[in-house]
Amino acid sequence: xxxxxxxxxxxxxxxxxxxxxxxxxxxxxxxxxxxxxxxxxxxxxxxxxxxxxxxxxxxxxxxxxxxxxxxxxxxxxxxxxxxxxxxxxxxxxxxxxxxxxxxxxxxxxxxxxxxxxxxxxxxxxxxxxxxxxxxxxxxxxxxxxxxxxxxxxxxxxxxxxxxxxxxxxxxxxxxxxxxxxxxxxxxxxxxxxxxxxxxxxxxxxxxxxxxxxxxxxxxxxxxxxxxxxxxxxxxxxxxxxxxxxxxxxxxxxxxxxxxxxxxxxxxxxxxxxxxxxxxxxxxxxxxxxxxxxxxxxxxxxxxxxxxxxxxxxxxxxxxxxxxxxxxxxxxxxxxxxxxxxxxxxxxxxxxxxxxxxxxxxxxxxxxxxxxxxxxxxxxxxxxxxxxxxxxxxxxxxxxxxxxxxxxxxxxxxxxxxxxxxxxxxxxxxxxxxxxxxxxxxxxxxxxxxxxxxxxxxxxxxxxxxxxxxxxxxxxxxxxxxxxxxxxxxxxxxxxxxxxxxxxxxxxxxxxxxxxxxxxxxxxxxxxxxxxxxxxxxxxxxxxxxxxxxxxxxxxxxxxxxxxxxxxxxxxxxxxxxxxxxxxxxxxxxxxxxxxxxxxxxxxxxxxxxxxxxxxxxxxxxxxxxxxxxxxxxxxxxxxxxxxxxxxxxxxxxxxxxxxxxxxxxxxxxxxxxxxxxxxxxx
Length: 682
What we know:
Layout: H1 2-16, H2 41-49, E1 89-90, H3 110-133, H4 141-166, H5 180-186, H6 192-209, H7 222-242, H8 270-291, H9 300-303, E2 313-317, H10 331-336, E3 344-345, H11 347-352, H12 373-377, H13 382-387, E4 394-396, E5 412-413, E6 454-458, H14 460-474, H15 481-491, H16 498-503, E7 517-518, E8 521-522, H17 525-537, H18 544-550, H19 567-571, H20 573-576, H21 645-649
Antiparallel strand pairs: 1-3, 2-6, 4-5, 7-8
Helix pairs in contact: 1-2, 2-4, 3-4, 4-6, 4-7, 6-7, 7-8, 7-14, 7-18, 8-14, 14-15, 14-17
């Protein structure tokens, strides 16, 4: 059996790791002999397993980096840094998308990336479904169907990534021959609503084929398909609603697909499409939410070694460090290093957390201000303390590791954020450090391997998807909205009276939250509180940028300066006059050198900076060379990435021609077909 598996993996490798410079140069997948491969359940299981790969290497990788992960033995915060570059959290520099002049046509070739991954799924689906229909696959029938369902899921998931990044996209269901004209024809883009419907159909097949519990642990199940169906449908519905009347929606003014001859007969009823996708989102989300309870320990969902048996977790990645396993990451290593990892929450994120009484901070008499960590965290939403570090939080129970030691128990505790750390990967840019994912076991420590499990999909998202989709469709909180919203609040140990928070929301005081806007205007308080709940519950889980794009929440981002914690009121004393109790050794005194002074190299933004309000840390304003120094600005053309010039060259009417206008592919709005060019407006 071991030899058979080895032969299977060799066959897979020979198919997919052939060197190729572009789609046309790849060795035809059908040239590989298949009479001894993909004929048995074990073959199908081995092939589908490759799509779970979490390698960071994209070179010649037609499988990996599809699902969220903590990486594979890489030095970063894994899943928990994927929201960097949004209004939730940031590294020491912003996402270059928000900086003028730094995004060009040809910076990446997402088109080719997705084509190759889709090609790998199509080979399996095309080959196996035919053989299964003919009764030529040996093994347990339910398991065979499950593995077919897995690959339908992966094709849908890859297509969804392409939809989010590129919009309109070719719909391919077969492996293409190595023929220029065939591939040129197949490259014709289809309107994004058709692509979204295709994705939902694949997810329906995945749900139909997959088992409630996978034949092997840590693999997809049918509820994963339902969850992602709700995500896709909600994404497309809200994208079409909030981008309606623009070139980013099929049929809208300036939509580039209108210039394609093959789409001359295309028509769309945009309102009907929005309604359809919202209905699909509600139904799919309800399947998951009804079938899965929320786990009573929010923090445990992110810091546990073993996530099996937790009903809320639909899929997770297992890591370990042992004599026979070397799958590990370094997430806990960075978090135990005083919340390092070059990732920090913004003031906007922190202020989005409600008080435990369900009121916004400005409406509650219990809010004590943000002058100290003690005040910031007092009486807040329980998820806040489980997501963000504060002075006094346990870092490690290993007395030989801790940077600061409590003599009473010998354990290491958090004292202050490393905002002055010279090695940025060990520092924190905003003063608000991540606690989400922190395991305090001394077995995992700084510079050593971490092996906490990574949650890939969890049912809480379905609760949120249902509430949002239901309100977007019906304009009220009927159905199961009340049940699901109260469940989220109960787990967070806060008031379940969400209506009280809605009634006391002052939208004029919520402008720091980019999600309070759609199409350049602020939304109503009910919808905003739905979005706020989503923001808090899913913090650091990699969904924020997709949400901001589908809501069209970036139009108003003009000359924005991201703020960190309130440093200059009281927090500075943690550095200039450290007074940690029971410290085993003196804590270093640090002298802040403000930007703009002549006393030395600046290590912090200036107190008098016009964007600091006299007290807030500005992560991009301590060095004029920082790409975010002059503020963040959004160009609406960046809601979609451009297609690289190579794809136009490969699809002209005459091979090798420079007449890109004869290509079967059209460019995304606001971008040219020439590599190295900036979007319109820059």
